[in-house]
Automatic annotation (TrEMBL):
Any one GO molecular-function label of the UniProt entry: phosphoenolpyruvate mutase activity
SUPFAM superfamilies for this protein: Phosphoenolpyruvate/pyruvate domain
CDD domains, per database record: ICL_PEPM (cd00377)
Stored InterPro entries: ICL/PEPM, PEnolPyrv_PMutase_core, Pyrv/PenolPyrv_kinase-like_dom, Pyrv_kinase-like_dom_sf
Name of the top EC class for this enzyme: isomerase
EC number: 5.4.2.9
Keywords tagged on the record: Isomerase, Pyruvate
Record's protein name: phosphoenolpyruvate mutase
Family, per entry: Belongs to the isocitrate lyase/PEP mutase superfamily. PEP mutase family.
UniProt entry tagged with the keyword Transport: no
Pfam families the UniProt entry points to: PEP_mutase
Highest taxon in the source lineage: Bacteria
Length: 300
């Protein structure tokens, strides 16, 4: 099995458009891999929501790291961690990259906003941008820190989210590419791919481009492929589907004061055991524990 960093790098440089699916804990990471995806988006929104907090860096960076460690252990495909702004300045980014490499994370994405950040999809949220040279320094620091040459650093451009326009997006793309970014994530929250396609029209194809079509989900994937986009992130759909499923089940059980109305609709406990790889422990017990002794009735 190829290293996770190398797997991610190959995805990024594949001639066809590739996909990352969101996960937010060990279980969802495993589900992403079993569905056939070749990579995981460690979504800041989904991880914070699953922890019951807002996507405003309310969970500390080491709390996020703990979640990502479980995700990494539960899967054999690479994770690209959404590390928000890098949780501080260039120095915090350096420490972050060291810790991500130690935990087998394939790639990191950092965005050019200010700490603590606001989620990009919020209506009317303040979205102040980091100065270009300061953010370029973070990218450079990340690249200088990595030990594994295949570890990828993705620079996320929030110029459209902050309503600074195409010129600013292109200026930032150029600067972050020069600073050593392995790819650029260009984000937009319009309901069409208009901003993304305008960017692709001007961008000189000097490094892979990543997009997150949460809001422009009606755009056919063939449009992304034709525009030369390398990686598409399905950023939060597992979290959202689990919320709907849990709300429904909780409401039914609360209303009926019985499990009868849900038992046939929900995942059997056996499937939970399978996802936890329970069989492996059974085999290990046979190997490492002495055979079960039947208790001696005489007590001797
Ligand atoms: C995330 O999934 O946390 C993202 C994408 O950063 S977005 O929510 O669109 O900002
Ligand atoms: Mg995020």
């Amino acid at each position: 099995m190829q290293k996770k960093t190398s797997q991610f790098k190959s995805l990024l440089h594949s001639p066809d458009v590739q996909f990352l699916m969101e996960a937010h804990n060990g279980l969802s990471a495993k589900i992403v891999e079993e569905a056939g995806f070749k990579g995981i988006w460690g979504s800041g929104l989904a991880i914070s929501a699953a922890l019951g907090v807002r996507d405003n860096n309310e969970a500390s960076w080491t709390q996020v790291l703990d979640v990502v460690e479980f995700m990494s252990d539960a899967s054999s495909i690479p994770i690209m961690l959404d590390a928000d702004t890098g949780y501080g300045n260039f120095n915090n980014v350096r420490r972050l990259v060291r810790k991500l490499e130690q935990r087998g994370v394939g790639a990191v994405c950092i965005e050019d906003k200010l700490f603590p950040k606001n989620n990009s999809l919020l209506d009317d949220a303040r979205q102040p941008l980091e100065a270009i040279d300061v953010f370029a320094g973070k990218i450079k620091a990340a690249k200088d820190t990595q030990q594994d040459e295949d570890f990828c650093v993705i620079a996320r451009i929030e110029a459209f989210i902050a309503k600074w326009g195409l010129g600013e997006a292109l200026k930032r793309a150029e600067a972050y590419h020069k600073a050593g970014a392995d790819a650029l994530l260009i984000h937009s929250k319009l309901s069409t791919a208009e901003e993304i396609l305008a960017f692709m029209n001007e961008w000189q194809d000097t490094c892979p481009i990543v997009v997150v079509p949460t809001k422009y989900y009606t755009t056919p994937t063939s449009v992304f492929q034709e525009a030369g986009i390398s990686l598409v992130i399905w950023a939060n759909q597992l979290l959202r589907s689990s919320v709907a499923a849990m709300q429904k089940t909780a409401a039914i059980i609360h209303e009926q004061q019985s499990l009868l109305g849900v038992e046939k609709e929900i995942t059997p406990v056996k499937e939970v055991f399978r996802l936890q790889n329970t069989d492996e422990l059974k085999k290990a017990e046979e190997r490492y524990l002495p055979p079960t002794r039947t208790p001696d009735p005489s007590g001797g």
